[in-house]
Amino acid sequence: MRNLQGKTIVLTGASGGIGEQAAIQLALLGAKMCLIARRADELERVQQIIQQQGGQAWIYPVDITQDAEAKQCIEQILNEHKKVDVLINNAARSIRRPIIQALDRLHDFERTMQINYFAAVRLTLGLLPHFLEKSEGHVINISTMSTQVPIPLFSAYLASKSALESFSRSLTMELGDQGIDVSIVYFPMVRTPMSSKTTIYKHMRMLDTSSAAGWIVKAVQQKSYRITSASGAIANALLNTAPAAVMNLTRPLFRLMDRQLEKKLRDKSS
Question: Residue 157 catalytic?
Answer without folding.
Answer: yes
